[in-house]
């Protein structure tokens, strides 16, 4: 006959306790962040250089938003005909 209860036959070592919900939630969040980092760096030889390039591109875009273009604004022209 098989053993049904963990208190019989020394099967208590086989029982795995589930962590409380807060700990479990934190572990899942950490695992998700790790997967996202691994996915974002897949196929990239130098992730630091890629990050610098992204930051530089964002700064250029931010500067373009702040400074008006020299051609007079948004580039749209009105024609009355």
TrEMBL record:
Ranges for region Disordered: 1-81
Biased composition (Basic and acidic residues): 21-40, 48-62
Biased composition (Gly residues): 71-81
Signal peptide residue numbers: none
Pfam families linked to this entry: SVIP
Entry-linked InterPro entries: SVIP, SVIP_metazoa
GO BP terms, alphabetized: negative regulation of ERAD pathway; negative regulation of retrograde protein transport, ER to cytosol; negative regulation of VCP-NPL4-UFD1 AAA ATPase complex assembly; positive regulation of autophagy
Keywords: Lipoprotein, Myristate, Palmitate
Superkingdom assignment: Eukaryota
Cellular component GO terms, alphabetical: endoplasmic reticulum membrane
Protein name: Small VCP/p97-interacting protein
UniProt lineage: Eukaryota, Metazoa, Chordata, Craniata, Vertebrata
